[in-house]
Amino acid sequence: MFALHAVAGLGLTAYTLKRILDTPSRKYDNNVGKEYDAWTEEGVLEYYWGEHIHLGYYSDEELARGYLKKDFKQAKFDFVDEMLKFSGAQNPKKILDVGCGFGGTSRHLAKKFKDASVTGITLSPKQVQRGTELAKEQGVGNVQFQVMDALAMEFPDDTFDLVWACESGEHMPDKKKYVEEMTRVLKPGGTLVIACWCQREETPETPFSAQDKEDLQFLYDEWAHPYFISIEEFGRLMNGTGKLEKVHTANWNKNTLASWRHSIWVGVFDPWIVVFKGPRIWYKTVREIVTIERMHQAFAKELMQYGMMAGTKALPSAKPSEGKADARVPVSASA
Ligand SMILES: C[S@@+](CC[C@H](N)C(=O)[O-])C[C@H]1O[C@@H](n2cnc3c(N)ncnc32)[C@H](O)[C@@H]1O
């Protein structure tokens, strides 16, 4: 009898725990700045992910050797360098980092292009404060950070040579406006490059299953994302501005997927910052691990795709070509 009660009790606990973890806790509700302020103040995200809040890049050779052999934070610097190559930008003098986080990318670009001026914008005042502190500590003078909404930027038209958006589009409630605003502030001849978590394109032949929809809804809701779009839709939005040319897109699942589980392992190897923070952070960390694993699963089965998109703003005399994105050979994910 006792054994029966114990099994029933354990079953009920497991069921309740699963229900709690399956119920998203940070739905999008104009709360993006507030959530990033909290992540910044807690310090856990910066401790593990370093200055960059985006996935890392693992080359085919590194993947063959095993992703755990690569330094987790170095993978993020490598990602920025690969993204720069993908953009095709040459020697930009004015750079805008849209949704800059703690400004890791802004500082990296400012160090690389010493005679450039780099501006990072975010919705989080705490990130502006931390980004500015780190720039000072590292002696980077050609970078500055501001709280500003990417959907209503205060910059005049045609201001920047390079507009860079790495993993900020996920949070945008209006993706069309996001693309249009970034194109507006781009100088003719300048480059727009976007990295964004995308959902696969849904077509009448390949509709989402009920499980796909449930998985996506959880991934939208847990980290304050209003919704995702497909890589193809980004291509259409970019071409639809009528101002961008040479629009090209790619799916980088294969070379970024390892980041998810790698981020869990770095916590397992060095759990102490979390251990000493107390029950609220323990709970939050368990939720993050569950979400990270669910992200891994969704990208591994290509329900989610790592979108890379770039284009150039046409010069006034040139007529940008209307039509489809030039989808470069997509790199498919390995499960
Ligand atoms: C996942 S972090 C990416 C950080 C950064 N790009 C990096 O490389 O480390 C998302 C960033 O997008 C910013 N963001 C989200 N919505 C925004 C908006 N409407 N305007 C400006 N920034 C926004 C957040 O404040 C946060 O800094």
TrEMBL record:
Q: Which residues form the Methyltransferase domain?
A: 95-190
InterPro entries per record? Erg6_SMT_methyltransf, Methyltransf_25, PiNMT-like, SAM-dependent_MTases_sf
Q: Which CDD domains match?
A: AdoMet_MTases
Q: Where is this region: SAM motif II?
A: 158-166
Q: Which SUPFAM superfamilies match?
A: S-adenosyl-L-methionine-dependent methyltransferases
Annotated metabolic or biological route of this protein: Alkaloid biosynthesis
* Residue numbers spanned by region SAM motif I: 95-104
Give the GO terms filed under biological process for this record.
alkaloid metabolic process; methylation
Q: Which UniProt keywords apply?
A: Alkaloid metabolism, Methyltransferase, S-adenosyl-L-methionine, Transferase
The region called Disordered is annotated at 314-335
GO MF assignments: methyltransferase activity
Please state which protein family the record places this protein in. Belongs to the class I-like SAM-binding methyltransferase superfamily. gTMT family.
Q: What is this protein called?
A: Methyltransferase domain-containing protein
